[in-house]
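Sample 1 of the test manifest.
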Amino acid sequence: MAVLSKDNGVALYAQVRETLRNRIVNGSYQPGERLPAEEALTAEFGVSRMTVRQGISDLLDEGLLYRKRGIGTFVAQRHVHRDHNRLTTFFDSAESESFEARIAVLKQEVLLSRHLVARSLNILEGEPVFHIQTLRFADGLPITLHDEFIPYKLCPEMLDHDFTQVLSWEALERCGFRIKQAVQRVEAIAADGQTAKLLETEIGAPLLYKERTVVAEDGTPLEFALCYNRGDRYSLTTTLTR
Amino acid sequence: MAVLSKDNGVALYAQVRETLRNRIVNGSYQPGERLPAEEALTAEFGVSRMTVRQGISDLLDEGLLYRKRGIGTFVAQRHVHRDHNRLTTFFDSAESESFEARIAVLKQEVLLSRHLVARSLNILEGEPVFHIQTLRFADGLPITLHDEFIPYKLCPEMLDHDFTQVLSWEALERCGFRIKQAVQRVEAIAADGQTAKLLETEIGAPLLYKERTVVAEDGTPLEFALCYNRGDRYSLTTTLTR
DNA sequence: CTTATCCGGTTGTCTATACAACATAATTTT
DNA sequence: AAAATTATGTTGTATAGACAACCGGATAAG
């Protein structure tokens, strides 16, 4: 029997969601098993059916549950249900994949945008942008050369930041922007001389090249980045849905 | 003034959603503009507030709209709002990116699974699997070498398929499986002799290597695939969310 | 003038209820 | 025995209303 707290500031549907999530991850509800019907959950939690549905809805999106109309709600098999399409920082991944992260700042400057950068940031050619070039190390080995562009007008105080510790995103959030999503395109390219040297690899070595545009809640482009990742040390996982 | 049809089989909230979507794409609602409040939409469409909310909710997920509590619902800037995390077939992408698609079947056999394949499909080592190896051409040029593995027991009638025309997914759906999502991991590797020859490129050329596991609604792995994509002719776009 | 309070508008959460659509199993009819 | 019908349980859609939380601006108090 579950007890929900009425006044701890957490919405009831969120409490329902987390209670169900716990039961799934700790095995009270086994993969493939049918959950109690909405009516039963309604009775158990002492909330209305719509509230139960709202809680379940989130778990459906996560792929932890699936439903069959007229049949029931079921726990999905363990195999996948991970959402790999979350926007994370280099330090975040370092923590979840447990490697030691270090960032070296190679360049930190203001320059005038052109072609690709201007177009991606949806600004006029010639508008000033920050350019931050960093080299990123995992467990002491270089894995990514990172070129990042941010419109100057968005966040002028960006200049006095130590980008070895504070990421540009935090700076952007301090300027009042809420980062919402990013679109990135990856392809495989061969390392040129300059890049190979920085990444301590051979000319022609395969690199995972990534272009990423980060946008705010309202769709304004906040950042455009080019990443050259060492192919032998970097992989990218995504989840696709039908 | 919008008129919703009560009995055309389309849910009211879906009609609300599509009506709003149209107004956004055709510019009746401009980027950045505030939508009429839920109350107003309720009145206009002649449906209840929860129905309006359900319709809006989908557009929020798509990033077409965003909300600020206490303020309103707004149209996002045009820039991004495309969901690139949809599971599509080779022929689907051919249509949307308008290139001519052709598939050559190199191998079509049943073999015994081991290591990576067995683990990815969540079956025992030694269980039989279909192996379908294809070479895929865009506008006549080879771009992808595709190795695909499907547990034999899922769909024995898979043997008599012409995989130049019918994709394995259609076969799986005919066997009653509903493909739900896929997890894929990409990295950049160098082409070996065999692969280089098939893809008509040089040994050592950068390839975008992709491992993909496709799972059904209930989380059962249906297919595991290895794709070797020519780096200079293939790129992959994904959308990440905070 | 500045600060504090109030007010109206908006989205967020929640309730209680009703009927539709669908799937399975049991029952009845043929 | 087979087919059609009915019954029952489940999720899907929709309603009408209520109050909470939040924001911004207007108003009042200092």
